[in-house]
TrEMBL record:
It holds the Pfam family Proton_antipo_M. It comes from Shewanella frigidimarina (strain NCIMB 400). This is NADH dehydrogenase (Quinone). It is found in: Endomembrane system; Membrane. It is an enzyme of class 1 (oxidoreductase). GO terms for cellular component: endomembrane system; membrane. One of its GO terms (molecular function) is oxidoreductase activity. Its EC number is 1.6.5.11. InterPro entries: CPA3_Na-H_Antiporter_A, NADH_UbQ_OxRdtase, ND/Mrp_TM, Proton_antipo_N.
Length: 482
């Protein structure tokens, strides 16, 4: 039995099963909920099995159809891609459980095929080994995400989806132009080959600028974040959760992967520029979150702020800094998905998300409020949460490298996060208002949010496995993709 399991190309399974599940949900909409939940469980199992393979091998390269690079399409997995796959699988399972009770029958028949297709595209992106296939998967991801945002219906959602579509297409255009420049200069699209051949040149600097601009647009890094708050605020709650937790992380992953392989040779000034944009995002997003009067908009601007932390690792450039940023990325995915789910529960129960009028939920949604508070602990960076570990590693890196000013940004961002999290909690617990609504919230919607929030906190206690995962294949070394 063990021999049979070893023969299975597990690196392909996280891509194939969601695509099969998506087609099955499209063909059998009456069974979509069951098929979607089953697919999410299978994907998590496949990622776990792939993790065991990587524990033994360190990294894995798989030529699709038997044709290797540069002629064929290769898949590549190491600790970095495994962390992203595990993040997507855990959040995906939580979103699937939540969505099984959230959507009406009519919207569910559209949601499940789109969501599982997005899951397959996301996993393919994390496993792609060449920059053109990264473009293809990124484009599929963006188009599917646009359709999911529009699923809410109404003018606001459609306008937000159209704005997101235009930004996504513009970002893809910049990225593709950069890919064309690289191919013209180097003659290959495979990341491992590029890592060996790329040399500083005007063409490469232009390619780095174009690709980075496209990816930063899709990541919604300040000041290119204008599309994110309306899209996240107007989308259905589970779509907001997957957008904030997963979709915007995909373009960051591509930028990070390219940076680790060959972008960082193009000079340190660009790294400092990314750090400055990240610092501005932390402060601007936090201030805007404090100013919001609607819960989902507050959480959306919080995403703008939290994404900024990830870019502080670029000017630091050490292994500790990268690990800190990725630990924050992982814990933020859990916390922000939980927070958007909690906001969806509150909106489902109260009929609105106006922060000043949320006193009616104080005694009625204890699990939801607990999930929101636990997620907030991680976003604030308080111990013993995963957010604390990520910030601690970044702070350690900034002190060790002598770049102490990034540590000040970390502290200021923590204060701002404390402000906007407690703004919500204060309104909920100090304004107990009567309500005539008799809405019953499905237990799965509360427990799925609480489960992800607990993971975000427990990441601060169980640090060994995530950090050990990031050592597989030495993703922060050199020549590791070959």
């Amino acid at each position: 039995m063990e021999l049979i399991l070893e023969q299975i190309p597990w690196i392909v399974m996280p891509i194939i099963f969601p695509l099969i599940g998506s087609m099955a949900c499209f063909l059998f909409p009456a069974k979509a909920k069951s098929l979607g939940l089953l697919t999410s469980l299978v994907v998590l199992a496949c990622v776990t099995r792939l993790g065991w393979q990587l524990k033994a091998l360190g990294s894995l390269r798989y030529p699709m159809g038997g044709w290797g690079a540069p002629l064929g399409i290769d898949l590549y997995a190491d600790g970095l891609s495994l962390l992203m796959l595990l993040m997507a699988a855990l959040v995906g399972l939580g979103i699937s459980i939540y969505s099984s009770s959230y959507f009406s029958r009519d919207k569910a028949r559209h949601f499940w095929p789109l969501w599982l297709f997005l899951c397959g595209a996301l996993n393919a992106l994390f496993l792609s080994a060449d920059i053109f296939n990264l473009y293809v998967t990124l484009e599929l991801l963006g188009l599917t995400a646009v359709a999911l945002v529009a699923l809410a219906g109404g003018a606001d959602a459609l306008i937000a989806a159209m704005r997101y579509l235009l930004v996504s297409l513009l970002g893809s255009l910049f990225y593709l132009l950069g890919v064309a420049l690289i191919y013209h200069s180097v003659g290959s699209l495979d990341i491992a080959i590029l890592a060996q051949r790329v040399e500083p040149s005007p063409a490469m600097w232009a390619a780095v600028g174009l690709i980075s601009t496209g990816l930063l647009l899709k990541t919604a890094l300040f000041p290119m974040h204008f599309w994110l708050p309306p899209a996240h605020a107007s989308a259905p709650a589970p779509v907001s959760a997957l957008m904030s937790a997963l979709v915007v992380k995909a373009s960051f992953y591509i930028l990070l992967r390219m940076w680790l392989e060959f972008f960082q040779t193009q000079g340190g000034a660009f790294a400092n520029f990314l750090g400055l944009l990240g610092a501005a995002a932390v402060l601007w997003g936090g201030i805007q979150a404090l100013r919001q009067t609607r819960l989902k908009l507050l959480i959306a601007y919080s995403t703008v702020s939290q994404l900024g932390y990830l870019f502080l690792a670029f000017p630091l450039g050490t292994s500790i800094a990268w690990k800190g940023a990725l630990y924050m990325l992982f814990s933020h995915a859990m916390a922000k998905a939980a927070m958007f789910m909690a906001a969806g529960n509150i909106q489902f129960f109260a009929g609105h998300d106006r922060i000043a009028e949320l006193g009616s939920i104080t005694q009625r949604l204890p699990l939801t409020l607990t999930a929101f508070a636990l997620a907030g602990i991680s976003l604030m960076g308080l111990p013993p949460s995963g957010g604390f570990i990520g910030k601690w590693l970044l702070l350690q890196a900034s002190i060790e490298s002598g770049q102490w000013w990034w540590g000040i940004i970390l502290l200021l961002g923590g204060f701002l996060a404390t402000g906007y999290v407690f703004k919500v909690i204060a309104h909920v617990f100090t304004h107990d208002e009567p309500t005539s609504r008799t809405v019953t919230l499905p237990a799965t919607m509360e427990w799925s949010a609480l489960g992800l929030a607990l993971i975000a906190v427990l990441l601060g206690l169980f640090t060994y496995w995530p950090l050990a995962m990031l050592e597989m294949g030495s993703p922060f070394g050199t020549g590791h993709s070959g």
